[in-house]
Write a structure and sequence with these properties.
The chain has 314 residues and is of the alpha+beta class. Helices cover 43% and strands 18% of the residues. It has two domains: 163 residues, Jelly Rolls (Sandwich), CATH 2.60.120.280; 112 residues, Homeodomain-like (Arc Repressor Mutant, subunit A, Orthogonal Bundle). The strands form two sheets. Strands 9-1-10-3-6-11 form a six-stranded mixed sheet. Strands 5-4-7-2-8 form a five-stranded mixed sheet, with no helix packed on it. Helix 4 runs antiparallel to helix 5, helix 8 crosses helix 9 and helix 11 crosses helix 12.
Length: 314
């Protein structure tokens, strides 16, 4: 698989919560920060999203919003509206006037990620991905939004399952949207995959993580000189090529340890270490504990905090 597919498969994203959000009249709510990616798809009307340090963003029909880390935010019918503190809820939410037809309707919720490597995805992304309908309508992402809107407006058998799968596809499509990962984006994998030369190096690395790669090998795959490749990789990805490879190997190792069922020898061989001892030393150096302890902590629930699902964005 390609690098993005590898990472998304490792994280096993799923739409943990999805719910209707609606409002009528003048209203405003404010939510505290959470640790799960939140999203919203505007089905009709307009509302304003407020994030600390930025001007309010209008959300209009057909727009898609993804907040990878879901910081504290506000949602209001008009900019400048006083916002009341609100707590997440799993059920449908109605803001403002409770009677009459809503003048704003959205589908909102959160994604659940594999807790061991959730930071791997979150580090790839900007704080806010906003795909306006005007930019997304003619794309695959726009068509997914249309399908979701259609499915949410109907009451057909299997609706919940269809919505779940469409939301998962929407997350992947958002990650490869042309509006993120460009030249002005922060260093990271998404930007690297949009660089043809670096993308070739990333592809071969992910295709054979067990190989004894050198910078020269990867430079050859990229069609660049060793020094030029190393400098460009560091500038675009934010780390050296061998550091990237080490991080990816450790991500695979953490996932394998959390799932259980494989010996240290097998895991070490699968990710390119000569022995379980060499793997254990590298793992302890990076994670601060030996692989066996990490696996036991995960099994007992004492591992890294989960990307807990929350009914975000509403």
């Amino acid at each position: 698989m390609d690098p993005l597919s590898d990472i998304v498969s490792l994280l096993r994203p799923s739409a943990a919560v999805s719910k209707p959000i609606s409002g009528r009249g003048r209203w405003g709510v404010r939510y505290q920060a959470h640790d799960a990616p939140g999203f919203a798809i505007v089905l009709s009307g307009t509302a304003w999203l407020g994030l600390a340090g930025t001007a309010p963003v209008p959300l209009r029909e057909g727009d898609f919003i993804l907040l990878p880390t879901t910081p504290a935010f506000s949602l209001a019918s008009q900019p400048g509206t006083d916002c009341e503190p609100a707590a997440p809820a799993n059920a449908a939410v109605r803001h403002g006037d409770q009677e009459g037809e809503a003048d704003f309707v959205a589908l909102g919720g959160s994604f659940s990620l594999d807790r061991v490597n959730a930071p791997l995805l979150l580090e790839l992304l900007p704080g806010l991905i906003h795909v306006p309908a005007s930019q997304g309508r003619s794309t695959r992402l726009g068509r997914l939004v249309d399908l979701l809107s259609e499915e949410c407006g109907a009451d057909q058998p299997g609706k919940d399952l269809i919505v779940q799968r469409l939301l998962e596809a929407l997350l992947v499509e958002a990650l490869r949207w042309r509006g993120i990962g460009g030249q002005d984006a922060a260093a990271g994998l998404l930007r690297g995959m949009r660089d043809p030369a670096l993308a070739r190096a990333l592809q071969v690395m992910h295709a054979d993580v067990r190989a004894s790669w050198t910078v020269a090998d990867l430079a050859g795959a990229a069609g660049m000189s060793r020094s030029g490749f190393a400098a460009r990789f560091g500038a675009v990805l934010g780390c050296a090529p061998m550091e990237y490879l080490a991080r990816w190997r450790m991500a695979l190792a953490k996932a394998a340890l959390a799932r259980g069922g494989r010996s240290l020898d097998r895991i070490a061989d699968d990710i390119g270490y000569e022995s379980a001892s060499a793997f254990s030393t590298a793992f302890r150096k990076r994670l601060g504990c030996p692989p066996g302890q990490f696996a036991r902590n995960q099994a007992s629930g004492r591992g890294h905090p989960a990307a807990t699902p929350h009914p975000e964005m509403g």
